[in-house]
Design a protein that fits this description.
Order of helices and strands: EEEEEEEEE
Structural class: mainly beta
Strand order of the largest sheet: 1-3-4-5-6-7-8-9
Radius of gyration: 13 Å
Number of helices: 0
Number of strands: 9
CATH class: Mainly Beta
Shape: globular
């Protein structure tokens, strides 16, 4: 049985350092999630890939990304996520620490992205 996270997710909003990262939206960022792998595509081109595990659900549902190819190869990135209908919010802890909220602040190394499920 497929998990609700599985599928293709189109980025619709991004935030870093407390500021919108609207420049990324032009790249048509897509996050592909399968049973235990992720792929990130920019404008249809594979940019990053690896594996992931779902972790705890309290107080937030968590993911642990382990990069295999691309700019995050060899990195472990803890995340929190929220899935509501066809909207997925992910806050990435790019410094290796698990975020505690769906927000970024000036000087933080957290990255917040909002995705919508892509109809296929």
């Amino acid at each position: 049985m497929s998990h609700p996270l599985h599928g293709i997710w189109q980025m619709v909003r991004a935030e870093s350092g407390g500021e919108p990262s609207s420049d990324l939206l032009g790249l048509r960022v897509e996050l592909h999630l399968s049973a235990d792998t992720y792929h990130v595509h920019f404008a249809g081109e594979l940019a990053d890939q690896g594996t992931y595990q779902r972790g705890s659900t309290e107080p937030h549902s968590t993911l642990i990304l382990v990069g295999a190819k691309g700019p995050n190869a060899g990195r472990t990135i803890p995340c929190i996520y929220q899935l509501v209908g066809d909207r997925l919010r992910v806050c990435y802890g790019l410094d290796g620490t698990t975020p505690t909220a769906f927000a970024t602040t000036a000087g933080s190394t957290h990255y917040l992205a909002t995705y919508r499920r892509k109809a296929v």
